[in-house]
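Postdoc handover notes: sequence design on the structure in folder B. Input tokens:
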């Protein structure tokens, strides 16, 4: 998710909050706390996948798209720059970040979390959120946000919008500008850290743009060899982590271990168009937004291209499944200052990013 600046599950796990210092050089807008996630503890079990009932088992899914090329319908446009949509099933609404142009001496982009309640109601959910990519916490009570305003990963409680800290820094060094985030059903968080929204703030990552993991309140490095990692998502069975390297035009995948650690990476697809945000359906098909050609490219779990979805003309940034049956794909797309929300009905329900 870039500027061109640039989601996870529903289960009963709880998030315990403990105090922790803030990122280097950031001025907190609220008391800073770090989320300590209850981790998967059985080393012999497979990685946690979708929670029970999210993706029905024992059924065969057909083709995800009605045709090899389909078009989405505009719901509303005229926003600054929409990003990071995530569906909140309990409330029946969609949240998304709306980023404006950079301001102040550090050229940091303001961001508002907007809410869309079908069929046509839009309002402000959190002003001055500083967010880009969004995901849902395992207990469905918070959104986990890649927040570039404080160069960290934050959690916003849905009930009262209170903000806390998930990842403050890495080994005492401020992140560049966390961009997109995905959350495993046991609460392990993965996020990308390109430098798109760093603005004029100092580089504390020595030129590296990376992928990180947060487990048990500890931040670990997944990979620091990617050039501008962007969209990130987990397969429904929790066994594969997908990351788009925007400046390489490649999508990589990593084997995920039960403890949340990752194995060696491999190329999922050699991508054309600049991979931005991503989501996945219950069959494991991958939906990747492309900023340059305005398309959503749809791939099978094996990496075969299944078709495309068009929304707008350019600047397609991100995607998320939603609706009561999670067969509606919501798409954020459009030119800066005329960014819009689109939707299309598909054949396979989506994993709830």
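Designed sequence:
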């Amino acid at each position: 998710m870039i500027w061109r600046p640039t989601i996870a599950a529903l289960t009963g796990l709880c998030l315990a909050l403990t105090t922790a210092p803030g990122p280097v050089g950031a001025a907190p807008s609220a008391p800073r706390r770090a989320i300590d996630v209850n981790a998967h503890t059985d080393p012999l079990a497979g990685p946690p996948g979708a929670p029970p009932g999210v993706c029905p088992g024992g059924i065969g899914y057909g083709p995800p798209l009605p045709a090899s090329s389909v078009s989405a319908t505009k719901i509303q446009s005229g926003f600054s720059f929409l990003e990071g949509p995530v569906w909140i099933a309990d409330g029946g609404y969609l949240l998304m970040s709306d980023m404006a142009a950079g301001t102040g001496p550090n050229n940091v982009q303001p961001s508002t979390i907007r809410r869309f309640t079908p069929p046509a109601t839009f309002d402000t959910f959190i002003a001055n959120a500083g967010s880009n990519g969004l995901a849902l916490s395992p207990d469905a009570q918070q959104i986990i946000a890649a927040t570039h305003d404080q160069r960290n990963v934050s959690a916003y409680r849905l009930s009262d919008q209170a903000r806390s800290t998930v990842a403050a820094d890495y080994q005492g060094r401020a992140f560049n500008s966390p961009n997109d985030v995905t959350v495993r059903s046991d609460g392990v968080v993965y996020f990308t850290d390109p430098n798109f929204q760093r603005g004029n703030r100092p580089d504390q990552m020595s030129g590296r743009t990376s992928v990180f993991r947060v487990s048990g309140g500890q931040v670990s490095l997944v990979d620091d060899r990617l050039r501008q990692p962007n969209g990130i998502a987990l397969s429904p069975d929790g066994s594969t982590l997908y990351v788009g390297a925007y400046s390489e035009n490649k999508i990589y995948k990593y084997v995920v271990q039960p403890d949340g650690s990752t194995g060696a990476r491999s190329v999922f697809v050699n991508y054309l168009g600049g991979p931005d945000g991503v989501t996945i359906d219950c069959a494991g098909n991958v939906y990747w937004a492309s900023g340059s050609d305005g398309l959503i490219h749809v791939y099978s779990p094996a990496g075969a291209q299944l078709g495309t979805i068009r929304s707008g003309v350019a600047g397609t940034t991100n995607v998320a499944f939603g609706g009561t049956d999670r067969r509606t794909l919501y798409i954020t797309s459009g030119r800066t200052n005329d960014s819009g929300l689109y939707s299309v009905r598909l054949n396979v329900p989506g994993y709830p990013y």
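Context for whoever picks this up: Residues 213 and 220 are 5 Å apart (CA to CA). Don't rerun without checking with the PI first.
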